[in-house]
Design goal:
Blueprint: E1 11-18, E2 24-31, E3 37-43, E4 50-52, E5 58-60, H1 63-73, H2 81-97, E6 102-104, H3 105-119, H4 121-131, H5 137-149
Parallel strand pairs: 4-6
Antiparallel strand pairs: 1-2, 2-3, 4-5
Length: about 150
């Protein structure tokens, strides 16, 4: 790391600790040339994920959209906030493990439905009815029959 005072490359870390946000490391450094101290922050570089929506528009990935959809699906159901957080974490892990720069929203929706199916049946049907845009009762019933067959 280059010293901001004398531009020497001979610096060393004298103290390391997590930063206030717990997502980065705060390092105190000492320059061997001029003896001055300075602070640097080290953070994991994440690849920005772009979501391709149904109408082919693109927007940056937003975790809160998944959380909102799952919360609405689980409204007044026996599902704890902790379970919802774990589900969203699992969805996010699966999405980022694909290591793609762009991902279709349809794939995200399928992953969420897959996780919801295991968590709570009514929440799954609620989410699926909005996500798959059920047009009538017959579509709704066919989805219920698929669930009962499994």
């Amino acid at each position: 790391m280059k010293c901001p005072f004398c531009s020497s490359e001979n610096t060393r870390v004298i103290d390391s600790r997590p930063a206030d946000d717990n997502n980065s490391i705060r390092r105190r450094r000492l320059c061997d040339e001029c003896g001055k101290r300075f602070t640097t922050y080290e953070k994991v570089e994440t690849i920005p994920l772009i979501v391709i929506k149904k109408d082919n528009t693109r927007e940056q990935y937003d975790r809160s959209k998944i959380e909102g959809g799952v919360l609405r699906a689980c409204h007044k159901r026996p599902v704890s906030v902790n379970q919802i957080d774990q589900l969203v974490d699992a969805v996010e892990t699966e999405i980022f493990n694909l290591e793609e720069k762009e991902i279709p929203s349809t794939l995200i929706g399928e992953i969420v439905m897959d996780k919801l199916k295991d968590l709570e049946a009514v929440a799954y049907v609620r989410f699926a009815s909005v996500y798959r845009e059920f047009k009538d009762v017959n579509t709704f019933m066919s989805e219920l029959k698929k669930m009962l067959d499994k």
